[in-house]
Amino acid sequence: MFSIERWQEIFEGLYKNKLRTALTGVSVSSGIFILVILLGAGNGIQNGIQKQFEKDATNQVSVWAGTTKKEYKGLGVGRQVQLRNSDYDLATNLFKDYIEYKSAIFSVWSGNIVYKEETGNYRVEGVHPDYQFIENASIVKGRFINHSDNLNFEKNVIIGKKVEIDLFKNGKESLGAELNVSGMIYKVVGVYTDPGGEREESRVFIPISTAQKAYSAGDSIRSMSFTLKTSENFDTAVAESNEFTQKLETFLKARHTIAPDDDGAVFINNSLEQAKNIYIITGGVQAFFWFVGICTIIAGVVGVGNIMLIIVKERTKEIGIRKALGASPFSIITMILQEAVFITVIAGFSGLIFGLVVWEVVAPYVEADFFTRPEVDFNVALTTLIILIVAGAFAGFVPAYRAAKIRPIVALRGE
């Protein structure tokens, strides 16, 4: 039941001890503020990691070859393993039940590209049509590589948005233009954007068959990339991805006569397994931030509890009079708890609002590879508010219980 007299008593008590109340409030407010800042930073880390994985498909498996480290079946150490078209064809056929998108890649890290007076060095990649979806590229003009391009060794090229900006200045139309790519003329049939930004858009794609012919590669390939079919849940997807990775590695090692335990000859990168490990780490970071924040709040709550004990001691005679006049233990407990909860909630809510305002102001200016959009959502703010109420009640319970146990005759006799 609302009692204006009780609220008047609370405000009078707080006003009489302004410094003590202010210091107690600051301890609680700073605890909530630190918690909000830590949780916002944790979300910033998680958002940054998610942004990194948006650059390519999250269920991507990439394969490239290295150099043998162990002797095996009469073959010596230091043998360079070379992947070929046949490796790609056999792997895609053998593991077709796992695979969604697939592409072999023949890349040239620095290809000289010329358009009229403009020139630049960009990464040239010969790929299959599915590579668009593996790289999460979006076509903004024209089209991507198709099967006909590879079948007929077409000299068609798809350029990144950054390449278009560099070479086609003053509003020149890129689609249909002819580029000199490492001494050969290619026709621009498409322009793409990539969520990875300028670094990913500083590439050009040509048919892999054309790339192998243009760079005298024969049937050699640099690497292979696959994305796997979707699964019911994340854990199932990780298990199937690991199974596919293990089978693919076994297949390639057997095909190229590589020791099963040789870790230098075939490299396989499983982005889904990496994603799982990173999300486990970020979950641990979030849990640690919650732990530090809660500990800081507890320190503030202990301060509130100590203040309430002092208040109870100062008001012992008053409490004794109240009980002598018929006040119930419940009314005494409610009186103390109400004051403790009020101090905690007001101070904590101030810290919460201040923390949210700080992130609202700072967040737009914070952008890094693994840290972006630090924020605290409504559910976290609501959870924090509930923590404040519980903390305030906890802080006032022991002093309130002690006040309820005061015997009137003892209270009236004391100084």
UniProtKB/TrEMBL annotation:
Annotated InterPro entries: ABC3_permease_C, MacB_PCD, Macrolide_Exporter_MacB
Cellular component GO terms held in the UniProt record: plasma membrane
Parts of the chain that traverse the membrane: 21-42, 287-312, 332-358, 378-398
Keywords tagged on the record: Cell membrane, Membrane, Transmembrane, Transmembrane helix
This protein's major location comes to membrane
Q: Name the Gene Ontology molecular function terms of this record.
A: transmembrane transporter activity
The protein's location, in the record's own words, is: Cell membrane
Give a Pfam family name.
Answer: MacB_PCD
Q: What is this protein called?
A: ABC transporter permease
**Organism of this sequence:** Paenimyroides viscosum
